[in-house]
Amino acid sequence: MTACLSALFLVAATARADVSIGEHDPAVGSDEQIAYGEYVLRAGGCVTCHTADDGDFLAGGRAIESPFGAFYGPNITPDKEYGIGDWSEEDFKRALLEGRGPDGRHYYPAFPYTAYTRMQPRDVEALWAFLQSGVEPVARENTPHDLVWYARFRPSLVGWKWLHFEPGAFEPDPEQSDDWNRGAYLTNALGHCMECHTPRTRTGGLDLNRIGAGARLPDGDVAPNITPDRETGIGRWGERHIARYLEMGLTRDGDFAGGSMADVIDHGTAHLTDADRRAIAAYIGSLDPIEHEPD
Question: I want to staple 292 with a disulfide (CB 3.0 to 4.6 A). Which of 52, 85, 97, 225 is the partner?
């Protein structure tokens, strides 16, 4: 089955299409590519999961609660012992696009490779360049995951992937605008917004019939309905309201974001360009409205 997944990935990788984000199209190996890689890092929400409260930048240790126990974001600084300093670029690409480590082990989907698999090669390469050249190495040992006994059996992840992981390229919709497609890429691939805002099935996969309809997170926080349902979602928000929220955390009603979303904004979407935030707003505003079902 692992071989089948790899084969699917290789076929899909040949079809990747380009969607421009940010303000640059940097040359490989340039300072501009490293700077663009930091932009990709912010758009990808990496800081929130890989930096502990009061911890060193990207040195890991932040707990990610789940029904199966606590996962801890690993050290992704270029430290050679505890971080990714001994990885090759191919190791890094395999992690993001296939959900597999340098030793071939399958990663738990607390790491959202299910969305990152659709990242563009240019963005993956720039992110790698930034992590290797723009981040200080930190010799912080990774915190082991604290999981229930049955979730510790990693070979079971092969079956989980068979059920829930579809590797492949982001495919722009030719009938939509460039802005819409950029927003779709930022929302569904790089920003992996639906990983939190979509309820899960009993086996831990996304409920594909209720994408974006809101979900209760394992830590008790609520990821709200971000479809345009007027009663339970953001159907009363205009695109400018959504874009402002992503920049400042200020809701349509004048309240500020709290909980995990405040971190997502502070460390992520606040750093995006106005054009990219507007693109996300345009895409989200175009979704089919889904009424949120209370827990």
Answer: 225
**Any idea what DSSP says for residue 64?**
E
CB 26 within 8 A of CB 35: yes
* CA triple 74-107-11, angle to 5 deg: 125
Residue 223 per-residue DSSP state:
E
**Residues with Cβ within 8 Å of residue 258, at least 6 apart in sequence:** none
SS3 assignment, position 271? helix
The kind and range of the H/E element at 70 are strand 69-72
- Could you tell me which of 119, 121, 95 has the C-alpha nearest to residue 170? 119
Residue with tokens 């920049």: 247
Apex CA 288: angle with CA 286 and CA 291, to 5°?
130
Q: Per-10-residue mean pLDDT for the chain, 295 residues long?
A: 39 52 78 96 96 96 91 97 98 98 95 97 96 98 95 92 95 96 98 95 92 86 93 96 96 88 95 97 97 78
Adjacent-strand bridge partners of 250 = 256
